[in-house]
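Tutorial sheet, problem 5. The four components below are modelled jointly, 294 residues in total.
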Amino acid sequence: MQSEVCILSEEAATAWARLVRVSQVVLSRVEADLKAAGFPPLSWYDALLELERAKPEGLRPYQLQERMLLAQYNLSRLTDRLKKAGYIEREECPKDGRGQVLKVTEKGCALLRSMWPIYRRAIVAHFADKLDASETAALALTLMKLR
Amino acid sequence: MQSEVCILSEEAATAWARLVRVSQVVLSRVEADLKAAGFPPLSWYDALLELERAKPEGLRPYQLQERMLLAQYNLSRLTDRLKKAGYIEREECPKDGRGQVLKVTEKGCALLRSMWPIYRRAIVAHFADKLDASETAALALTLMKLR
DNA sequence: GCCTCCTTGATGCAACTGCATCGATCGATA
DNA sequence: TATCGATCGATGCAGTTGCATCAAGGAGGC
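Model answer (structure tokens):
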């Protein structure tokens, strides 16, 4: 590993730098649009969306954490905020005394529905409108390989 | 604007979701490699690199801020940390009594040189090795259009 | 059952970020 | 030159994140 020859082409370095910068810029533009419309951050949307997809069983916190690729303590605090805001409920897990089951509330679903038009418009304006269909498809494939 | 028809294809939505997730994951892997090697975060590297490129004149804080796409207060604090760690110097700007000129120190250049092998290896492992040359080039072009 | 190790989720603390605002200086205008 | 709005950079405060650690409960071996 350590001694392995490690070649980084000029083109790859450029692509790397651009990936870091551009994804940051575009994401922050979308977040800014959401905030300007009075909505919470994208991470709230992501969490609620996963919980809506998991209806009606809900999700264990560690499952949501895996799907969102969040650190455990960050998920714990995100769910605190979501619960305090009334967008999710925490139930005790009948199968595991340590755990919980998270479920989105009706208020949470309503938030998803009201955020989506703004979120969608932001994705279109800052991302989708700047690429044609073949570029979009190629980008999705390329990103897939980076997982 | 508000009334404009706003279409988001399934493919574009997929590409968007992947861009957000993948860039976050890959970036965090690279950052983790740097941290594991005992190095400071990537933002320190970026700042020092810009200042090295700007040698010997240095950069005004607002110029560095524009290049790094950082909020003004974040740049102010980043430079605090870099200065406290001895990687940069702040000089008074002879042309503008409000401002400063930031310059990388020899210690800062040494940090750049010692970080680069680890950083490069991480880029290769988590990014460049997963794509072929044509994908890399296409990705760079596509990302360019998102600016 | 009991011991041990693993998993689940929470939390104290320090560091960092976002927001609003400030003081200082610059530049344009009268 | 005096004034006024704009620009430059710093900072107090609150919210968020990273790190280390903890308590509680589960799962497997004896």
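Marking note: Residues 71, 73-74, 77, 96-99 of chain A lie near DNA strand D (CB under 10 Å from a C1'). Full credit if you identified this.
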